[in-house]
Amino acid sequence: MIPDARELLAGLLFLGFGLAGLLIGRDYASGTAMRMGAGYFPWLVSLALCVLGAVLLVRGLASSRERVALGELFQARPGLSIGGSVVAFALLLPSLGLALSTLLMTLLSGLARRRAHLGELTVLGCVLGLFSVAVFAWGLGLNLPAWPV
To answer: Would you kindly state where each structural domain of the chain is located, as residue ranges?
Structure first.
């Protein structure tokens, strides 16, 4: 048993992703704040992940909250639900478009909760889908299909 294993593992996860991002993006030109290069924003996000991970690690080690065994942290349902929703989104995006793929991803990931409310998930998925289309397809002009083809 370790002090607050949830925060400790979350900190390790954030720190790992942040370090991986810094390592992968080290060869990208960062530029300046006024003339950002390809690596500027990924560097900022990776750095923020590292800081967040370090804070969570320290809090997890220094916490005097309830101790949790590592084996109790890993459950199949949330992992499969969220992982499967991301895979489904990636596979369905080209044919269903951004709006419907986001809706389905929200519904599938909502199954991670024991008492998932279909109505709430549907409304959330619709709002997220429309927001994604507005920001990424229309606002940023990314080459993503917004609707089914």
So the answer is: 5-73, 76-139
Q: What angle do the packed helices 40-62 and 5-24 form, to 10 degrees?
A: 160
CA distance 97 to 138: 13
CA-CA distance, 82 to 58, in Å (whole number)? 27
The region, left, alpha or beta by phi > 0 then psi within -120 to 50, assigned to residue 141 is left
Instruction: For residue range 73-130, list pLDDT tens digits in order.
Output: 667 788 889 999 999 999 999 999 999 999 999 999 998 888 889 999 999 999 999 9
- pTM for the structure as a whole: 0.61
Tokens for 44, please give them.
Answer: 């900022």
pLDDT, one tens digit per residue, over 42-79 is: 889 999 999 999 999 888 888 766 666 656 666 778 88
